[in-house]
Amino acid sequence: MKLSELLQSIDHTVLQGSNPEITGLAYDSRKVTDGAAFVCLKGYTSDGHRYAVSAVEKGAAALVISDDLDTDVPETVAVVKVDDTRAALALMSAAFFGNPAEELMTVAITGTKGKTTTTAMIAEIFEHAGIKTGTIGTLGIVYGGNTYKTDNTTPESYEIQKAMRDMRSAGCKAMVIEASSIGLKHHRLDGMTFDVGVFTNFSHDHIGGVEHKDLEEYLYCKSLLFRQVKNAAANCDDEKYREVTKDFQGELHTFGFGEAAQLRAKNDRLLSDGGFIGVHFETEGSRRLSLDVGVPGIFNVYNALAAISAVSFFDIPDQAVIDGLRVAHVKGRVEPVAVPGNYSLLIDYAHNALSMENVLTTLRQYNPHRLITLFGAGGNRPKVRRFEMGETSGRLSDLSVITEDNSRFEDVMDIIEDIKTGLAKTDGKYVVVPNRKDAIRYCMTHAEDGDIIVLAGKGHEDYQEIKGVKYHMDERELIAEIIEEMKA
To answer: What's the chain look like in SS3?
Structure first.
């Protein structure tokens, strides 16, 4: 593809060079290949302009800059100046990969909380409607049963465009993405018009440091999504919904519990039945449904409403919505695992006191026979975290099972002693089982009817880090092994 084709929709000035054939794009000089265009991004701690010469040495045919270069580069290399290299990278990436968003059903979700869960719900509904779907967000790029790790909730624009092209090549017909405020601020979603944009909620977060200077900027960045969507849905129980969606030009579809919402929830209640933990509710207004959602916590009614609203812009049958929401879950976030007994087993990423408090408080609302929490703590991390986790579990659990969790370069028994220090501040019962598989087996073999067991700390991780080595360890596989061993 000629450089001029990649720059067709971008205001730019050619400083030198001709119109080379571009074989690839890169914003990391270490990934430059012969014939690539290197886009100089300015980050928090580094500036791509400093690596322009290195990129040329690796074979870059063109440089895209926003600042003047400190050194000259060969005249054979095209140098193009733009106002914002991040915005340029987004538009160039979309063009380079053939605008894959135009070939997919696309949904983008923004909001302080609920993006990951809502993304999973929408994807599951699409899949139940026979629409192969990929997702991009906190857990990475996911499609076709594979997960590809990313550094950010909303990756750099090049990764997004490449992922969508790969999804399309793999047979996907839809893509759902978490649109973070930082991703929107840094133009990572530029160059696309989404079929649907969704607003979940707004609260104080990501303020200060290298993120947003104040709440006003944070809110403004959320609103940027609604300049590039064909349809929009918003939680109208959140007072900020009008401000976030103010730039949307079409008819806004609203959801919530209030009478003003077009899609309204009613008769909501916690649901626990034979290992199934979630919420039940019904909808009225724009769609009438009776639903069981397989994610615990009443707050997940809002996430389900967001998902229903999003898919309502497509031709999705009610049964796909009902079936999809019943089984939807986020890997490693109160993720249910099927077990042969009459108890519930959940995997969760909670690895500090605050996240543990949130999960256990939510599960306490289900009035389990016993709430059992298995957890450890990471090595080479502040000891206060261990004290706090021990105290939190001791206060909220009927039984704590203390075990290993990425002990790194520390002795697991030393970490466990620190956890016990926190437990000692409570009346909570506990047992110590240092090996994690043995600890899980202990929980399963001692489970009683109506128990809720939480395996906390690992979540979506599939490794255990010990003495600088990451060993494969997926709790889902361990549970399957234990079930087979128990049968034998």
So the answer is: CEHHHHCCCCCCEEEECCCCECCEEECCHHHCCCCEEEECCECCCCEHHHHHHHHHHCCCCEEEECCCCCCCCCCCCEEEECCCHHHHHHHHHHHHCCCHHHHCEEEEEECCCCHHHHHHHHHHHHHHCCCCEEEEECCEEEECCEEECCCCCCCCHHHHHHHHHHHHHCCCCEEEEECCHHHHHCCCCCCCCEEEEEECCCCCCCECCCCECCHHHHHHHHHHHHHCEEEEEEECCCCCHHHHCCCCCCCEEEEECCCCCCEEEEEEEEEEECCEEEEEEEEEECCCEEEEECCCCCCHHHHHHHHHHHHCCCCCCHHHHHHHHHHCCECCECEEECCCCCCEEEEECCCCHHHHHHHHHHHHCCCCCCEEEEECCCCCCCHHHHHHHHHHHHHHCCEEEECCCCCECCCHHHHHHHHHHHHCCCCCEEEECCCHHHHHHHHHHCCCCCCEEEEECCCCCCEEEECCEEEECCHHHHHHHHHHHHHC
Q: Is the domain of 14 the same as that of 112?
A: no
Per-residue pLDDT of the chain (488 residues; tens, 9 = 90+): 999 999 999 999 999 999 999 999 999 999 999 999 999 999 878 899 999 999 999 999 999 999 999 999 999 999 999 999 999 999 999 999 999 999 999 999 999 999 999 999 999 999 999 999 999 999 999 999 999 999 899 999 999 999 999 999 999 999 999 999 999 999 999 999 999 999 999 987 655 656 676 888 999 999 999 999 999 999 999 999 999 999 999 889 999 999 999 999 999 999 998 889 999 999 999 999 999 999 999 999 999 999 999 999 999 999 999 999 999 999 999 999 999 999 999 999 999 999 999 999 999 999 999 999 999 999 999 999 999 999 999 999 999 999 999 999 999 999 999 999 999 999 999 999 999 999 999 999 999 999 999 999 999 999 999 999 999 999 999 999 999 999 98
Domain termination residue (choose one: 327, 351, 376): 327
Regarding whether 316 and 173 lie in a shared domain, the answer is: yes
Task: Look up the domain containing 437 and give its range.
Answer: 335-487
Residues 301, 313 within the same domain: yes
Return the CATH number at 396.
Answer: 3.90.190.20
**Single residue among 96, 126, 145 that ends a domain in this structure:** 96
Q: Are residues 315 and 179 in the same domain?
A: yes
pTM equals 0.94
Specify whether 287 is located in the same domain as 181: yes
